[in-house]
Design brief:
346 residues, alpha/beta, 10-stranded mixed β-sheet, 14 strands, 21% strand, binds S-adenosyl-L-homocysteine
């Protein structure tokens, strides 16, 4: 079985022609696939053709099996994939539009100490079409309220490490950007990495104007190693150099994510070191107070200390903001909903 969402219109057309189907069928089917409609709903296609197609292709590789809506309108989805695996996504409502946070892998093997997505390791990579289908499904789910497509911005910040699934993620970016498909501008997409240095260079060389976000969480290698195993492989200096290269290649300002963990990375020494490593680089720091994960023994930096940390960075000339927490009441943090689901299943 092939996933139609994995394929470009051109590829579907070639396949259909080989099947002896007329070319216009590909266009019709593609339009439905982009709207999240299954074969049953493809009303302008005769039953025999639909039945033939459904034996060879999957039109929608995932469905929403649970939806939580927060008091701030944030929606959290639990999706079931065609093979029974579950992943999650979040749709956040901002003044300028809606940002969908997509997963790139089922689980994760990066092992970050504060993150729920990695608790059960990596199950498998998602294909390009499975990542795209998260966007298609979120659009379909919100179609009634919005004349236009609901999802205006995309962040690759759900479960998984995008650069650990490099080719499928790049495939997804090209599909979602395609004018025949959803036509989402690269500038409205942000990709977040825990700092896989070789892939940061590889991605920069593609020169897609995608926003790159790097999860730094500590400017000090020793401390970073305590919370992020990947820091044993790449130093902060190597990451900053790769980020600088990304900026040079794409002209996009790099954003550093910094999750504030009490007593771990929120002191004056940390702020000074952070200012030191970012010196002379047009970067922005996104501070997020830890969204504590039950299975992990870490606490969030208190509000007043977070404000202090922000003040220290600003006085050291670092551009920084504290990110508003959204959807905390609905298990908004990476991987929490899926973990709850997995626990209740077993
Ligand atoms: N693997 C990628 C993208 C997924 S995580 C990466 O590491 O960047 C997206 C962001 O959420 C990262 O900055 C990650 O460190 C952060 N994050 C994960 N769990 C969190 C939690 N419990 N509280 C706050 N931020 C968290």
């Amino acid at each position: 079985m092939k996933l139609l969402a994995d394929m470009s219109l051109e590829e579907i057309t070639a396949d259909f022609l080989a099947e002896g189907l007329p070319k216009y069928r590909a266009k019709q089917v593609y339009k439905w696939v982009m709207r999240g409609v299954g074969f049953d709903g493809m009303t302008d296609i005769d039953k025999a053709t639909r039945s033939l197609l459904s034996q060879k292709y999957i039109a929608c590789p995932l469905t929403i099996i649970k939806k939580l809506v927060s008091s701030d309108k944030t929606q959290k989805y639990l999706y079931r994939l065609h093979d029974g695996n579950v992943i999650e996504g979040v749709l956040m409502n901002y003044k300028y539009g809606n940002t969908l946070c997509v997963s790139t892998q089922i689980g994760c093997r990066m092992g970050c100490k504060f993150c729920a997505s990695t608790l059960n390791g990596l199950v498998r990579n998602l294909t390009a079409g499975e990542i795209l289908a998260q966007v298609i499904t979120a659009n379909a789910e919100n179609a009634a309220q919005n004349e236009k497509r609901a999802v205006t911005n995309i962040v690759l910040m759900g479960s998984g490490e995008p650069f650990d699934n490099f080719d499928n993620v790049v495939g997804f970016l090209k599909l979602v950007n395609s004018p025949e498909g959803l036509g989402v501008s690269y500038r409205n997409i942000s990709l977040s990495t825990c700092g896989l240095v070789p892939e940061m260079y590889r991605f920069a060389d593609l020169r897609l104007p995608v926003n790159l976000t790097v999860s730094l969480h500590s400017p000090i290698d020793e401390k970073r190693r305590e919370i992020m195993p990947i820091a044993n492989k790449y130093s902060v200096k190597e990451i900053i150099n790769a980020a600088r290269y990304y900026f040079e290649q794409t002209g996009r300002r790099v954003i550093f994510e910094y999750t504030l963990i009490e007593g771990q990375n929120d002191t004056e020494k940390d702020a000074k070191n952070l200012a030191g490593v970012l010196k002379g680089f047009p970067a922005h720091v996104n501070l997020i107070r830890l969204n504590p994960v039950r299975e992990r023994n870490l606490s969030a930096t208190k509000n007043n200390q977070a404000q202090k940390f922000l003040g220290m960075l600003e006085s050291l000339g670092v551009s920084a903001t504290i990110r508003r927490q959204m959807g905390v009441d609905i298990n908004g943090a990476c991987g929490q909903l899926r973990n709850d689901y997995l626990k209740n299943e077993s």
